[in-house]
Design goal:
It is globular, with a radius of gyration of 15 Å. It is α/β, with parallel strands linked by helices. Helix 1 crosses helix 2 and helix 4 runs parallel beside helix 5. The protein is built from six helices and seven strands; from the N terminus they run H-E-E-H-E-H-E-H-E-H-E-E-H. Strand 6 and strand 7 form a beta hairpin. The protein has a seven-stranded mixed β-sheet, with helices on both faces.
Length: 171
Amino acid sequence: MFHTALRFSLQHVFRQRGFWIEGDPPMVEQPVIVACNHATARDALYLSVAIPVPTTIVEPALLPGRAALARKTCTLVQDDSHGGVRDFGAKVLDARKVLVVFPENQLEPAGMGEFKLWTAQLSLSTGIPILPAVMDMSDGRCLRFGDELRPVGKADALTEQLHATMTALLG
């Protein structure tokens, strides 16, 4: 109940500050990997409020104040080792939960950096699709969701497809 009330309150505050969502975030509890660029230190908080189902977010660098607030609306995990994310992520997805990852595995305020292969490897090894999302700060604060990418092919090709899709979403 507390999580729902806090999420609703934060949604109201974010809307008042010009934050909006385009596309369809995960609406039901089902396993999906949400892959988002990492534009600001507040991304985990924005994502935890925008996705209306229980979410686990893997954050490469946690800032104490924002991490404390985000932990009240989602499960927030710090992990900077790609292997650990794959193992942990598989457990989250096995529990039929939403897993949010940042494929760059670092903050990239100027745009999108190079994607690591581990997001695609996790998708391919679990058979769970990737839902691309981007935080676009060029026109205010917009979280934009794309269409799911099915886990087919090889990790490098799926990573390239994910990067191209997210680049197109970013505009």
